[in-house]
Amino acid sequence: MNFVFPWFLLALLSLAIPVIIHLFYFRRFKKVYFSDIRFLKQVQEEKSTIEKLKKRLILASRLLALLFLVLAFVQPFIGNNSAKNKGTSAVCIYVDNSYSMGLKTGGEAALAIAKTKAKEIAKAFAENSKFALLTNDADGTYQRWMQQQDFLAAIDKIELSPNVKTAKEISDKIAALFQVVGVVNKRAFFISDFQKNMLTPFSDSTFTSYFLQIKGDPERNIYIDSCWFEQPIFTINSTNKLIARIRNSGTTNADKIRISVKINDAVKAIDDVSILADGSAMDTFNLSVSQPGWQYGEISFNDYPITFDDKFYFSFNVAAQEKVLSVEDAETPNNVVAIFNNDAHFSVEKANKGQLDYSSLKKYSLLVLNHLTEFSSGLSASLKEYLDNGGNIYIIPSSNANVNSYNAFLSNINAGTYGTLQSKAGEVTNINLNEELFKGVFNQMPKNMEQPKFSKLYPIQVNNQVNEREILSTNAGTPLVAKFDVGKGYIYLQAVPLLNSFSDLAAKAIFAPMIYNTAVYKKNNMPLYYTIGKDNLLEVKNEISNSEAVYKLTNGKYEFIPENRTIGNTILLRVNTTLPTDGLYNIVNNAKTQAVVAFNFDRTESGLRFADNSMLAKIFNQKNQIILDNAQSNLSVAVKHIKDGILLWKVCVILSLIFLLIEVVLLRFWK
Q1: Which structural domains are found in the chain, ordered by start?
Q2: How far apart are CA 614 and CA 597, in angstroms?
Q3: Tens-digit pLDDT profile for residues 468-518
Q4: Which of 171, 329, 413, 671 lies 20 to 30 angstroms, CA to CA, from 351?
Q5: 619-633 residue pLDDT tens
């Protein structure tokens, strides 16, 4: 126990006063005169033991009444000395406004209760205290110090947000705010439903943290957490399978949830899916499109009462046609060109390296350097720029290749190099099925499949600084085909020319799909969707020569200009927490749509996996981390007890009055 005014304990010396009164007042004798001795018979004799007891009770009640009166002025409290409110306090309150706080408990949304509790906490501190409010939004309106009235007004403006933050991220922001305030008493309050995904421990000894859990009643929630196409390339009037993963975060089964898929606002597929409690299911939709260009996709269903994640948006681009260029010398085998000739989606062209228009390379998805004898300096520079801007290159060496010329180019781009021609027989021993080039080519590797063989090759050499993946491995200690990451594209090196005197690779079934997929799979393919709240980097081709061109994101209702920078013929747009809602957004420049991107709310809020008090106590287990009781009807009282300790002066006043009353009763009614 501690005292607010301990010097007032000197007043306990006054306890001597009733003792002195007792010793002298009750020892006095009264003379009683009787007119006749007969009246003495009427005097009732008092027993000495009862009289002594009465006097001692009166003395005790006086002493206790005076004792508690003195203690009331001393103001005792239960708590540590550090609990005293010395000077001004700095109070930072985090209110979780993620979508799961929209769940109701007792007919009221968890966020509304959290806002009420935040006000109660603020009112527990003096008006001259400094207050800061944090939410999941990166809004400068909140992240500053303010007076109590401004703070209370700011709380009323909090609304549900798609953004999600972890406890560690919030703690870092709080620490940054406390660094700029010159106050000793620093207290931070975390008011949240504390979903398990946000529980990242932290230990900051510069302030005291309090955790108050306000959560709605967990209910069943159905949501789509991801989707993808079976084939990476979508062509006009062809069918592609859209695969969606649907989850049920509740404790009851979900039966026959109707899911619809729209492309450009037209319903393309409908299906009913059932999902076990706390389980997931995959659903497949067969889709086709009849027009090229950007496609607006939406997967939707109805799942009351949690509706923020009932729609999942995606977008993709269907090119009218992609171009492949075979760069050749005078005499080149026609094997590669034949692979694309019968595919309407690809247009294949041939060009002699001496007549090549370097400025036109950027319009091709794949460049096949087809049996070139050597590389000129101009070609090498253009190829490097092409790779930096996201193009793919497949190199097939010539039978009389100038290896030094090849390696000068390959070394400059930090890829593997070729060794001198070797007469060395061997065969492919492993096909890297983990590579996307073979995605969908084999459901499983055929037994006893005849592998490509070779009798001569240019060994592919790799140093430790190169990011290399073997596509076709051999028993000769060098791959037959290898893949390297260069810039924003890929470069593939083949170890043999397409000549029977070197290898039978061109005649094997593996060759055609491998070459075809080098044009399909690109490093810079735009994702089907992005997640709001993440640090998203969007890449679009810079088709505007004007350096002052302005790129905007708009969905018809909202429009804003994201941070952007230009790298070569690519524009990088950074989008993190600036989007007000999910949906499909056009990237617009000079009133022309450059691309369409889809943004979805963060699905980590859809899981509805909440921590209990024991888990909170286990994670936030530092001495300066305290778990508050969410059952308090008025949090102001509880916070005052934490801040100031449990004040006992009111109890002392009440006890003093009670003992005074006891004294009056003893004197008045005990005759």
Answers
A1: 2-81+649-669 (no CATH), 85-218+608-644 (3.40.50.410), 222-319 (2.60.40.10), 322-520 (3.40.50.880), 530-600 (2.60.40.10)
A2: 42
A3: 899 999 999 999 999 999 988 999 999 999 999 999 999 998 999 999 999
A4: 413
A5: 998 888 988 876 655
